[in-house]
Specification:
With 92 residues, this protein is mainly beta. Helix content is 0%, strand content 57%. It has a six-stranded antiparallel beta sheet, with no helix packed on it. A three-stranded antiparallel beta sheet has the order 2-1-9, with no helix packed on it. It is globular and about 40 Å long.
Length: 92
């Protein structure tokens, strides 16, 4: 699986986990040079508190387009240490 934004592969892995239609990529599969942590957090009743990254490539920013659960609830433990994408990031 690949996550692509602005014609650049930002994550690539054969070991994603699909939850609610989203592919979660292992942290070690993301191209960290493009990722910047943001202050946004959201809460999911069964997964817990999500934190976000923006992605910056060639002077363009996709704000809060990647999220992860640093300490997911027990029901979502399989996505601990993994990142998912939205907001124009293509996953294929």
């Amino acid at each position: 699986m690949q996550a692509i934004w602005n014609d650049v592969i930002i994550a690539e892995s054969d070991d994603t986990v699909e939850v609610e239609g989203n592919h979660y990529f292992p942290f070690d599969s993301i191209k960290r040079e493009y990722f910047k942590k943001t202050d946004l957090t959201t809460f999911c009743g069964w997964k817990g508190m999500a934190n976000y990254y923006s992605v910056e490539i060639n002077g363009k920013t996709n704000k809060d387009c990647a999220w992860y659960y640093a300490e997911p609830n027990d029901a979502a433990y399989k996505i601990k240490g993994m990142v998912a994408f939205w907001n124009g990031v293509k996953v294929k």
